[in-house]
Amino acid sequence: MQWNCYGEYNPVETSPCTTECGLCLKACPFADSGENEDTIAKRLYGAVPGIRHRSETGYYLASYVGYSERHRPTSASGGMATWLLETLLTEGVVDHVICVSPTGDPERLFSFQVFDTPEDVRTGAGSAYYPVEMSEVIRQVLEVPGRYAVTGLPCFLKAIRLAQQRNKKLRERIVVTVGLTCGQLKSRQFTEYIADLAGVRGEVAGVRYRGKSQDQPANNFYFSFTTADGKERRLFWNEGIAEAWRNRWFTPEACNYCDDVFAECADVTCMDAWLPDFSGDPGGTSLLIVRSGEMLNLIEECCAFGKISVASINISRVVRSQRSVITIKKSHLAYRLYQDELLRKVFPKKRIRSSSNLSELERWKCKTICAMQRQSREFTLKNGCYLKDGASSLKGEMYWDLMQLRLIRFLSFPFRAVRYGLELVAQTLDRR
User: Fold this and answer.
1) How far apart are CA 261 and CA 321, in angstroms?
2) Where does the 4Fe-4S ferredoxin-type domain start and stop, copy by copy (predicted)?
């Protein structure tokens, strides 16, 4: 796996393929392998006693809201993913944990790594909005016996499940998967762009993507950049990061064809509690969807002994917490597929069917965001994000698209107000 010109990872042939076995495509989460998240998850969880299913979340046994007091300060939200990985090690459920952690290498700021102690696992706490790839850690799983837990985004875990079907060692050794909800990946240029926006001059040596401030709500976290000379710059979410994130700047094209929000192939899925009750808490709060009976027993036992502070939450509220991501990965995806059909483009087969059933405002919004996504990727070819004032140059190119989005937001205000009122009613009913 090597960097391409957009700051994304691509597979590169290092020697001529002699077997032509096709395993690479059969394990690729975006290739038409004949399997999707529904068929994979049904085989894994369909027979679990008490299991239920929703189209948005896939299978689920239970859903929780809460946090780990010990892990909360250094984690992106409530620290439940880090707590779970540590507990799997200390309880002897697994021998090794695979997760993303900082490298200290400016050319590759983050990577998947294998850890054997809870102390090492803590180095991977927090989010990493940076490209990573799994070839090195998968090679270690194949070469070093033991029981492994793997944490990853939906597409990574789908790839692991597909690979497990065709490799006995992966099937036997990867015994727990911990998923993270996902709306999109980002290229390495996203980090360079935000660093430039924060006023960083010079090479970025380290990044913290989800810093918390006690005087700010959980949904206004900051990015912290460290340079080689030890200087630090911070930029809060509402100071420009949100604009680049929501408008899909520096987002790989593959993300346009993902319809899995809740990591449906994972034993447990963790996410932020983006709900009015919790998003104002500076400490951060986690939501969990549990699909494995073993993981459910572990969480309930630790909750009973006071090791974590969690409570059951209605699955409808979990779905509502990720509403904007669901819109992009379901409704907007259906419209993008419809556009691809009109243009006779080749695209992977998805569970979502192509459809033009969007309002005129939503169509306009979808097209505008797609245009900005393409422009941001092409911007890296023309200018790169290492140049001084690169951030302002990109924003200048996006000016008219941003103006269109503001107009769309203004015109859609009555609809959003009605929807917000209905959501408040629904939340009240859920609590009852």
Assistant:
1) 11
2) 7-39
